[in-house]
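pasting Glycosyltransferase 2-like domain-containing protein for the record, 258 residues
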Amino acid sequence: MKVSIITINFNDLKGLKKTIDSVQRQVYKGFELIVIDGNSSDGSKEFLQQNAHLFTHFVSEPDAGIYDAMNKGAAFAKAEYLYFLNSGDDLHGNDALDNIIDHLDGTDIVYGDINIVEGNKQTIKTAPKQLSFRYLYDDLPAHQATFVKRSLFEKIGGYDADLNIVADWKLFALAVIKYSATYKHIDPVFSNFYTGGISSQVDNSDALINERQAILEEEFPILLVDIKRQFLLERKLRNLRKSKRIQWLQRLGLLDKF
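structre below
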């Protein structure tokens, strides 16, 4: 078995049905499907029970939050790669898995791009082919388009369930920086991400920054020094661009734009 698809749900029956339907419509069938439901009261539990034949494993019971649930799903997984597609999101076309399966060649992390859907607006979010600490400081490839080797996930210890928002970011950063995980980017848009999740809510922006900063100070203090130095240089560069003297020299052709 190549891929374990893990779906987390809590009181989102409509989203759960959409996600499961997109998985079942895949041309490629060499996957197992694991659903972890947090003891929902909206009919999700009954839906899972009535459609048990669709799932390799499912459970509906209280959990300690989304990352605890994702770890629980990973513990049931048997395939080489883990892929988290949570309730409400779906795969981008019926050939999404078929397009990526040949790229799961032993590389520790394989990631693609996602289609962000916000009402009637759709935006493709691309991830870089070459990762850097500067990129990871602010962002990470979306977990809805990321495949992680189960052995690597277990080596790191899974998601830090003590975190509320950025446990996926912590795992990815640890994998690439601390554990020197191999990785590669693939081009096809892999999944559709519908805004509204906890990491996309503006009200959580301060909490997100605080959690991420604490991880950086704990796990990557030396790299954080370099990042702060780079931020200072970037600020100076922005100020130079705003300088009227610099702009005047550029208009005269005596200084190239930078």
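The radius of gyration is 21 Å.
The mean pLDDT is 89.
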